[in-house]
């Protein structure tokens, strides 16, 4: 399961960053600093070079250069992308449950998934009851 499949759930800022540096590097940035702010330096002073180096360590030099050109001097709010990450996790749980229940009982599969994803069995069952969250492009605006 990949984040690309639920890109429509990403906040606007995450989509902008992904457009600039690609989704894999954006995911690295979210994993490292999601939910925080990061002052993107212009890479001219010593403090700015330290921040640039920290950014380059997470996303790579090329992506850090792109982000510096685009956001230099601004404070970048890096989104957590909780809805998209949760949807990816839930789809993985449903797929693994389907695979496991070919050989094992459903109770066993739910127990194993609860341990793997560090959640209660009850929450595993709740995830299994939900359908994949799809992009809603079918219903036009009513007003």
Automatic annotation (TrEMBL):
Q: InterPro entries given for it?
A: Homeodomain-like_sf, Mor_transcription_activator
Taken from the record, one Pfam family name reads: Mor
Q: What's the superkingdom here?
A: Bacteria
Q: Which Gene3D superfamilies match?
A: Homeodomain-like
UniProt signal peptide? none
Query: Domain Mor transcription activator, which positions?
Result: 41-135
Report what the protein is called. Answer: DNA transposition protein
């Amino acid at each position: 399961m990949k984040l690309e499949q639920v890109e429509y759930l990403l906040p606007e800022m995450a989509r902008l960053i992904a457009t600039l540096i690609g989704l894999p590097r954006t995911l690295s940035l979210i994993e490292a600093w999601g939910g925080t702010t990061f002052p993107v330096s212009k890479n001219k002073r010593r403090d700015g070079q330290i921040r640039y180096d920290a950014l380059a360590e997470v996303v790579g030099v090329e992506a850090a250069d792109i982000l510096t050109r685009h956001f230099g001097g601004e404070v970048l709010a890096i989104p957590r992308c909780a809805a998209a990450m949760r949807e990816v996790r839930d789809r993985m749980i449903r797929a693994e449950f389907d695979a496991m229940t070919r050989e094992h009982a459903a109770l066993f599969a739910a127990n194993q998934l609860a341990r793997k994803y560090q959640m209660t069995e009850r929450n595993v069952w709740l995830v299994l009851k939900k359908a994949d969250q799809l992009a809603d492009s079918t219903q036009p605006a009513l007003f």
